[in-house]
């Protein structure tokens, strides 16, 4: 494990060398980082990390994005996620797998009241519609590993929440 300074990511190019597969789950919140900080972390840092990974020999890049990501969205969060998807695809990896999970079910270190309430509500809904609105982070992780071990053959693959659930059970 290597700790890098994302403000000076280019100085850490060695950390990105010699890896066949790259996993990127980097992100923050607008509330925590402000609008400009959110864009810097969720788009700029991710795009730069992808470029460094490709330059370092990475063949398959796996990006965690978000359900409904769209570079033309009027919502900042969805627009930035859509923009970074396009930027990562443009890097030119042999394979690029984009995960678009719905609300992630996980235990966070920090308390986010609105997310906590939403997780509880949608967690209950998941009993009836298990792949519609939520996904446990463990399922996403298993699906990411499965995407490496069971390649689809596509250069760019976008996996929506239902597909993540299916692959995470494989």
From TrEMBL:
Source organism of the structure: Alectura lathami (Australian brush turkey)
Gene3D superfamilies: NAD(P)-binding Rossmann-like Domain
GO molecular function: catalytic activity
Domain NAD(P)-binding, chain residue ranges per copy: 2-148
Entry's Gene Ontology cellular component terms: cytoplasm
Name the record gives this protein: Protein HTATIP2
InterPro entries the UniProt entry points to: NAD(P)-bd_dom, NAD(P)-bd_dom_sf
Subunit and partners: Monomer. Forms homodimers during oxidative stress. Interacts (via N-terminus) with elongation factor EEF1A1 (via middle-region); the interaction is direct and competes with EEF1A1 binding to guanyl-nucleotide exchange factor EEF1B2, thereby inhibiting GDP for GTP exchange and reactivation of EEF1A1. Interacts with nuclear transport receptors XPO4, IPO5/RANBP5, IPO7, IPO9 and KPNB1 as well as GCN1L1/GCN1 and LRPPRC probably through their HEAT repeats. Binds NCOA5/CIA.
Lineage of producing organism: Eukaryota, Metazoa, Chordata, Craniata, Vertebrata
Gene coding for it: Htatip2
Swiss-Prot/TrEMBL GO biological process terms: import into nucleus
Pfam families recorded: NAD_binding_10 (PF13460)
């Amino acid at each position: 494990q290597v700790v890098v300074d994302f403000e000076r990511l280019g100085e850490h190019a060695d950390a990105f060398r010699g890896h066949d597969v790259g996993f990127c789950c980097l992100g923050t919140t607008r509330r925590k980082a402000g609008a400009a900080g959110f864009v810097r972390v969720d788009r700029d840092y991710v795009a730069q990390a992808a470029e460094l990974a490709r330059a370092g020999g990475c063949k398959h890049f796996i990006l965690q994005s978000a359900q409904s990501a769209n570079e033309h969205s009027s919502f900042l969060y969805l627009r930035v996620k859509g923009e970074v998807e396009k930027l990562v695809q443009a890097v030119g990896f042999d394979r690029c797998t984009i995960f678009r999970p719905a609300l992630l079910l996980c235990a966070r270190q920090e308390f986010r009241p609105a997310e906590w309430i939403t997780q509880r509500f949608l967690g209950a809904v998941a009993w009836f519609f298990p792949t519609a609105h939520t996904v446990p982070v463990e399922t996403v992780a298993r699906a990411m590993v499965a995407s490496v071990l069971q390649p689809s053959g596509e250069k760019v693959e976008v996996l929506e929440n239902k597909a993540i659930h299916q692959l995470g059970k494989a």
